[in-house]
Amino acid sequence: MYEFKEEYKTGIDFIDEQHKVLFGIADKTYNLLKNDFTLDKYDKIVTLIGQLQDYTVFHFNAEEEYMNSINYKRMFTQKVEHDAFIKRIKDVDFKKIDHNQDEYIINILQLLNDWLTGHIFENDKLIGH
């Protein structure tokens, strides 16, 4: 379902490779949602959230270092958006996951979808210009 496509490329190879990893996490999350054979998805959801938390911090740091190195004029805006995304991922209420696991997965997917199609497509592509 989630696939890194040509229109998401920034033209900066390491950023594009890191974005592919984020698309991969989104795809794993989508596949978990569609998996009707796993009744209790709690542990898998927690694992995916952990991967997302760790990888976004790594990726945003790398992206921000690059933007600094080229004196990117929209660096501050990017940093604010990165910090807000990390906060949303870190503010997960793990108690709520168990009440309706599929609904929680849908919420994660909505966040990822907005980020991948919005932020990457509209903001990160500008870094390569």
Number of helices: 5
- What is the helix content? over 70%
Top-tier CATH class: Mainly Alpha
* Major sheet details: none
CATH-defined architecture: Up-down Bundle
Q: Could you tell me the strand content as a percent range?
A: under 5%
* Overall form: elongated
Mean pLDDT: 94
Structural class: mainly alpha
Family: Belongs to the hemerythrin family.
Keywords: Iron, Metal-binding
Pfam families: Hemerythrin (PF01814)
InterPro entries: Hemerythrin, Hemerythrin-like, Hemerythrin-like_sf, Hemerythrin_metal-bd
What does this structure look like?
This protein is an all-alpha fold and 129 residues long. The protein has one domain: Hemerythrin-like (Four Helix Bundle (Hemerythrin (Met), subunit A)). 75% of the residues lie in helices and 0% in strands. It is built from five helices and no strands. The longest helix has 28 residues. The radius of gyration is 15 Å and the shape is elongated. 15% of the residues are buried. The model has no long low-confidence stretch (mean pLDDT 94). This is Bacteriohemerythrin. InterPro entries: Hemerythrin (IPR050669), Hemerythrin-like (IPR012312), Hemerythrin-like_sf (IPR035938), Hemerythrin_metal-bd (IPR012827).
Features of the shown structure:
129 residues, mainly alpha, Four Helix Bundle (Hemerythrin (Met), subunit A), elongated
List the helices and strands and how they pair.
Elements: H1 13-34, H2 42-69, H3 75-90, H4 94-97, H5 101-127
Helix pairs in contact: 1-2, 1-5, 2-3, 2-5
